[in-house]
Amino acid sequence: MATAQPRPTGLLSNARFVASPNHNARPAGAVVSLLVIHNISLPPGQFGTGCVEQFFCNQLDWQAHPYFKSIEGLEVSAHCLIERSGALIQFVSLHQRAWHAGRSSFEGLENCNDFSIGIELEGTDDQPYSDAQYESLVQVTLQLQQNFLQLTNARIVGHCDIAPGRKTDPGPAFDWVRFRTQLLDAQSVIGELR
Ligand SMILES: [Zn+2]
After folding, report:
1. Beta bridge partners of residue 120, listed in sequence order
2. How many domains does the chain fold into?
3. Are 25 and 157 contacting, i.e. CB atoms less than 8 angstroms apart?
4. What is the Cα–Cα distance from 168 to 91, expressed in whole angstroms?
5. Residue 3: pLDDT above 70?
6. CA of 162 to the centre of ligand 1 (A)
7. Are 88 and 140 in contact (CB under 8 A)?
8. CB neighbour list of residue 160: distance below 8 Å, 6 or more residues apart
9. Model pLDDT, residue 6
């Protein structure tokens, strides 16, 4: 499974692409080697509103909900969002740096945005994620691992792990054992096919 080449565009074939302006180049020599899992919902706890997409594209109406005042003017993004249905939206090329992690460090290396891919799950810290989201996340992870060979299973973390004390997502609702088990199962199927 180590032979696939990165798509030149850095776009996932099975994602709906919505361009976010909130990205820039990765530093020269940066090797994509970390997957960061997040959650987001806007307003918090409400799903399918379209507000996350608007937020990542700097098109959210800050007046539309009282909560939005607290995030007004923020320019953020993630490479991908997995909706409750499992549908995948991509906002930033995988080769570019998305603005998802903020102040962060992993194994002593700071600014994780430089060398990571950020995936948002539509959700909250304490509401169970959908079956479709786990399935979609597993499939995306497989795709990413085929394209970025240093993205090993040990280098898949939550935002909470790289920004402890500051961030809690994807929260206790994210079942890491389930995700890692499903991922290993999917990887073993690929192994058997080759
Ligand atoms: Zn996060």
Report:
1. 38, 81
2. 1
3. no
4. 23
5. no
6. 10
7. yes
8. 167, 168, 169, 170, 171
9. 53
Of all residues in the chain, the percent with pLDDT exceeding 70 is: 95
CATH code of the domain in which 35 resides: 3.40.80.10
Asked whether the predicted pLDDT for residue 41 surpasses 70, the reply is yes
The answer to the question of residue 10 being in a domain is no
Contacts of 133 (CB under 8 A, 6+ apart): 82, 83, 84, 86, 121, 122, 123
Cα of 121 vs centre of ligand 1, distance in Å, is 9
Average pLDDT, the chain: 95
What is the rounded CA–CA span in Å between residue 131 and residue 99? 27
Range of the domain at 121: 16-189
Residues noted as catalytic:
120
Has residue 4 been placed in a domain? Answer: no
Indicate the SS3 state at residue 29: coil
Does residue 167 sit within a domain? yes
Round to whole Å and give the CA distance between 50 and 60: 9
- Residue pLDDT, tens place only, 132-155: 999 999 999 999 999 999 999 999
Q: How far is the CA of 28 from the centre of ligand 1 (A)?
A: 25
Q: How far is the CA of 158 from the centre of ligand 1 (A)?
A: 8
Q: CA distances (Å), 152 to each of 122, 141, 145, 147, 187, in order? A: 24, 10, 7, 11, 12
Residue 2 lies in a domain: no
Mean pLDDT, rounded, for 30-42: 98
